[in-house]
Design brief:
The chain crosses the membrane at residues 6-24, 120-141, 147-168, 202-226. This is Zn-dependent protease. Keywords: Membrane, Transmembrane, Transmembrane helix. Pfam families: Zn_peptidase_2. There is one protein chain. By secondary structure, the chain is mostly helical. It has one domain. It is 75% helix and 6% strand. The chain is built from seven helices and three strands. Strand 2 (72-74) and strand 3 form a beta hairpin.
Amino acid sequence: MFGNMGFFLLYFAVLLIVPLWANARVKNTYKKYSQVASSSGMSGAEVARKILNDNGLFDVTVEPVKGQLTDHYDPRQKVVRLSESNYYGNSIAGAAVAAHEVGHAIQDAEAYSFLRFRSALVPVASFGSNISIFLIIGGILLSASGLLLAGIVLMSFAVLFQFVTLPVEFNASSRAMEQVVSTGVIRNDEERETKKVLNAAALTYVASALVAVIELVRFIMMYFMMNDD
């Protein structure tokens, strides 16, 4: 009884506190360093273009996109999209984010294994994420363990996607640090601030993975309890 109670307390702590903390951390860190200009004075667009050119990725374009922290790399269209503040601004945060997204472009060009695996998982993970909860709820309401198990199996693909995302993101950040240093985008004394921005962003992916695992474990426990009955 205590074990189950302890798990559910941990579940709600992870579900509520961890994502809020990670989200607040990345927003506060980004806000702080988006107000600090980089020594190079290069805009995020210029940083992205320089790193792309230095790596021979002349076919990848760089475009602005509306919103805050909406930066991403689109592998289908070969486009690095940067939020307008990062695209036009010359902050340390903007340089870090731009370099990170270019890191994904470099991964794509090199056929980075985890990125390819994640891309292959997208259809089944998306399907599992959308359908699994209905099967799980149906299984719980109808006391149908088979239905619940089917939902758990589908949800596991979505959880796997979250975990495969971690090495993809950490590797992109590692590549970003290497590139901004080697290309002279930042000085040595700016490395610490750049790492803070990249590490804060990585926390959101770690938080998402933790929540996904806790959620999956909770339903697995329900499945075994249902079968015990």
